[in-house]
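Action item from last meeting closed. Structure (207 res):
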């Protein structure tokens, strides 16, 4: 029996509008963003610091990548340890999402909530942010570079057309290169087809 390859994941389609939770005079603003790298995460955090200049805490959690290369972080930003970042991250796990950043901005209202109250507030705000998002399914893809001489162009393009492969980059000179994107479940078959072609080289490329 051929094992089933899971080559999809869930993420959010677009940044959400702010959601607001009020708890004992404190205000918690929740945001969710689709992200794929640390540069995007940093940009969203900097923008929220500028938007909420008088806030007390900017707590967040994110997860990027798919198994086995999953990266995550949870940040309490001055709140008691594990009272903010991990409850936020718990909602990312609960919704089974990746490539997502959730930020909860807190304005302190003068009344301490206690660790239990903070956990509930950050968890609830993160949940509200994700409930307001549009969740979509995406495929996990493999990027290949095919290298060949110009004289072998026809046989390479024939396979690309027959297998309905998506070209993302092409360079046609004396030595030609084409980058293609293949769904993970089809990647091994496509690799074998091009490997079998005479005078054609294929290798996986970092996305």
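Sequence:
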């Amino acid at each position: 029996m051929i094992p089933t390859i899971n080559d999809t994941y869930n993420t959010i389609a677009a940044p959400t509008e702010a959601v607001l939770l009020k708890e004992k005079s404190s205000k918690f603003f929740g945001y969710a963003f689709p992200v794929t790298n640390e540069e995007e995460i940093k940009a969203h955090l900097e923008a929220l610091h500028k938007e909420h200049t008088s806030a007390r805490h900017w707590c967040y959690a994110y997860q990027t990548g798919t198994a086995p290369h999953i990266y995550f972080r949870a940040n309490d930003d001055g709140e008691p340890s594990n009272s903010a970042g991990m409850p936020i991250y718990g909602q990312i796990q609960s919704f089974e999402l990746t490539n997502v950043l959730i930020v909860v901005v807190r304005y302190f209202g003068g009344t301490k909530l206690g660790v239990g109250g903070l956990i509930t507030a950050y968890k609830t705000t993160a949940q509200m942010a994700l409930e307001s998002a549009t969740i979509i399914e995406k495929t996990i893809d493999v990027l290949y570079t095919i290298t060949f001489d110009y004289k072998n162009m026809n046989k390479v393009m024939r396979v690309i057309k027959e297998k309905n492969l998506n070209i993302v980059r092409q360079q046609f000179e004396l030595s030609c290169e084409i980058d293609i994107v293949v769904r993970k479940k089809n990647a091994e078959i496509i690799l074998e087809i091009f490997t079998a072609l005479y005078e054609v080289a294929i290798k996986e490329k970092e996305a």
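Note appended to the action item: The chain has two domains: 8-137, 140-205.
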